[in-house]
Design goal:
Elements: H1 2-22, H2 24-29, H3 31-50, H4 55-76, H5 79-110, H6 126-140, H7 146-161, H8 163-188, H9 194-197, H10 204-222, H11 225-244, H12 253-256, H13 263-285
């Protein structure tokens, strides 16, 4: 939980505060490389998670895929993608932290994390299954839960500057549904054997630990506006800082709602406009 909720965020926060802010020109120059690595992380992490036989390892590899989304949104450098990345940092800490908690509760009861040894747990432990379902769907990115908002903003903003990378990244959402739903089917569905039939359900104290996370998952998915409004001013200043200290120009569709125009064309239009303004000022001087 400490790794998922705190330690991993040090790296992504470092990208924002040190990578983009202190080195905007370098960040813009190497953005294609970082976006490519992020997309590779999304697909590779999802494929590795699909093949895991250990439930805890599956959740760990899913974190690799989620952090790939955060890297993609960070180095796409648009208002929407950066807002989505910051929000997804919070979402990941809540959802993946809750998943690790639930896996720990299952291990405490069965003393194994092997998916093949777990079966039909929803019959003896329906509350545990219900909690796992909500958190799992959040991690998949189901609309109405927190994971959807962050990933949607990342994909929406990244499409403006890195279209084909974003198209490939969408496969990560599909694969997330595959490995998480498949794991849930094997662990919680079916007829429990003798060892799994004796598993006890959630205790009151365990439910109280999980309750704040479930509330956050639902509230941030249904009404993310307060969180996005809190994030937006810092993100806007960061994008303006990168634009002022590098040759990057954010597509205006990200802020003004115009038709989507490739970044190269936007930069050309920007430089032409500057040249036209300079020529006009020279004529007025004459």
């Amino acid at each position: 939980m400490i790794l998922a909720g705190v330690m991993l965020k040090l790296g992504t926060y470092g990208f924002l505060r040190f990578g983009l802010y202190l080195f905007p020109e370098a960040a813009h120059h190497f953005a294609p490389v970082m976006v490519t690595l992020g997309v590779i992380g999304i697909v590779y992490g999802a494929i590795c998670a699909t093949m895991q036989k250990d439930l805890k390892r599956l959740v760990a590899y899913s974190s690799v895929a989620h952090l790939g989304f955060i890297a993609l949104g960070t180095f796409a450098i648009t208002t929407q993608s950066l807002q989505g990345s910051v929000l997804q940092m919070v979402n990941h800490g809540v959802s993946t932290g809750a998943l690790f908690l639930l896996v720990g509760m299952i291990y405490e009861r069965r003393h194994t994390r092997e998916i093949s040894q777990l079966k039909g747990l929803q019959k003896p432990a329906p509350l545990l299954a219900a909690m796992f379902t909500i958190v799992m769907l959040s991690s998949i990115g189901l609309p109405g839960l927190n994971g959807f908002v962050g990933e949607f903003l990342i994909l929406l903003g990244s499409f403006l500057t890195y279209r084909w990378w974003t198209v490939v990244a969408v496969t990560g959402v599909i694969l997330a549904a595959l490995y998480l739903l498949w794991a849930y089917q094997r662990v919680f569905h079916g007829t429990p054997d003798e060892a799994n039939a004796k598993i006890r359900d959630l205790k009151l104290t365990e439910g109280l630990v999980l309750a704040p996370m479930i509330v956050l998952i639902v509230v941030m998915g249904v009404y993310p506006k307060p969180f996005l409004e809190r994030i937006e001013p810092a993100v806007t200043r960061l994008v303006e800082h990168v634009e002022a200290n590098s040759d990057y120009v954010q597509p205006t569709v990200a802020t003004e709602g115009e038709d989507i125009v490739p970044a190269d064309e936007k930069r050309a239009e920007h430089h032409e406009a500057e040249a036209g303004d300079g020529a006009h000022a020279g004529e007025e001087g004459d």
